[in-house]
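Support request, please re-run this one:
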Amino acid sequence: RPVPRCSVHGPAGGEIMMGNRLQKIQKLFKRTPNALFCLLGAVVFLAGFYFLRSRTPLDEIWLPTAMNNDEALYNRQVVSVITHGGPQGYFGYQEGTADIGRFSTWGPFLIWAYAIPGFLYGSSFNVVLWVNILFIALGIAGFARSAKLNWWQCIILCGTMFAVTQPLSFCFSGASEGLHYALTLVLMGGAIGMERTGKRGYFLLTAAACALETIVRPYALLFWVFPLMAVWKNKRRRYACFALMAASLGISLFAMAKLAAPYFSDGGMDFAGVQLLFQGHPIQAVVYELSRIWDYLKGAWKEIVPTLQSNTTYIGNGCVILLATTAVTVACLIWDVRHGRRIRLKAASLCCSFIIALVLLGLYNIDPRHLMMMVMLQLAAVVIEDSKPAAVYLPLLLLALLPMNFSRGTMPEKNEVMAAQMEVVAEALDASRAEDNSIDPWDNTLAYSYGDDVFHGYLYAVPDGMGIEFDKNSYLWDAENPIYSRYVMCGHGTRVEERLLAENWQELVSTEDLVIYKRSGTHLEG
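Re-run finished. Output below.
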């Protein structure tokens, strides 16, 4: 006679019930969350990360007190697009401008990428911050859904991102890292979705992410390897990838040459080795690059050592995070090779990371903001390929890095003294420009004297649409250097102020921390 379910008792019955529960849990972890749960999960995760890390409410963040001058220029350019369709003045360095247009070093594409979703938030000081949060939330959700991550993989992804900390921390800022990290996740997830389903939507999504990232950061050309691996057997899509790859690189090079203002001559990219190569000196080019790379590696080691000794530094922390993540990726790769498992994504991410590291060392620098792109790339590869040891290695990585990375602090908050001065500056510039009623770009541009101890957060006071020339004070105080900008912001009693007074510039407004002068008469021809 059949035994009723309610009559199952004793040790055997308990084991059966426990086994059923474990099976249900296993099925749950294998189930892929739908799109809505992915998005809600990303938002909840980001909110939890932020409020565990910061005591400052999101609506009380005030970016003018942040220490990154790039953020001020990003904000003013994005706001100029939102309010006026583009800058009314020039953005540049050392009174330099783009050959075409009025945008700064990053060109118009990056700014428009932020301005389009920025219309949702308006022209506030924090518009780039809000767009960054939107980008990274969509990036995490899109990656999880496109790659068909199960619940366990989502937990591993979020836990490891929490442990490495820096990528998410950079997203809660006014810089552009949120877009780059989100695009990295989207293109990795899209490539897997395209390989799994062959759907055109995944192809378009992945190609768009790769193209935009290549346009704004040319070394991301390497990321095209991921969609190419997914469509290699499809001749038509393979050729389309190559065509889009070439087009995006061409647009990037054109934007760098013509649509972006040149950076300081002693900063930015170092093409000395490339120039030696093109001049027919390959040996000298190699020697120059090796020497430069060696110097950077020595400098990085000096930052890594105190970081490992609990005296964390900015560069050292970024290097340790990258090295730890790379070690995990290599360990998972070796495990999978020995067990005949999938390794393509991990191998490709490691190769891309190695080449990008060489490019950064040879041509640019090792700022952790760029290193974290390699961390995101490798993390995505390990999570997607679901290496069995990842369930062990990634939590160990979390435990190893979390004590170094996790610290609760505050975000920049409003400074009333600074805010009052900014209001005075904005009103004076608005009134002066309204009086002149000039459409000439230089009449709508302010030169900022970098190095005069005037905090660059005051640049947020520059009215919407007005351009900014980020000039070194040593450039501005030299009477041999022309000043095309109609206005100059400098410090009290400085050599720049002495030059302006000697050339009969008129004081427009003076506050405790700065003074702004206006050219009397007509402006110089740029």
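The chain has 20 helices and six strands. The first strand starts at residue 92 and ends at 93.
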